[in-house]
Amino acid sequence: MIRACDVDDLPDGEAVRLLAHVPISVFHTEGQYFAIDDTCSHQDASLADGWVEGCFVECPLHAASFDLRTGQPTCLPAKRPVRTYPVVVSDGAIYVDTAVAQEAIA
Prior knowledge:
Layout: E1 2-6, E2 14-19, E3 23-29, E4 32-37, E5 51-53, E6 56-58, E7 65-67, E8 84-85, E9 87-90, E10 93-96
Antiparallel strand pairs: 1-10, 2-3, 3-4, 4-8, 5-6, 6-7, 9-10
């Protein structure tokens, strides 16, 4: 598990980027936390820099959108999903389980 940040440091609608085996973004939206690969599957852009709306993030480069719950792209130009990771909140901190990367469900 990798510690992302304190709960108080990630307000709703915001994201933080982690350096792990691959860059990972952690999002706080609608009262939940989600972790996905940070790099857009279409082109090299950080999804942590994207726009969050509900359970979706829009890539800042070409407006590809991904479902934070599944990692599936929801529109072009992205065609490939990004991996998702389990998130655990414990003692006021947010952790990402990078050992259990989950391939997006097709």
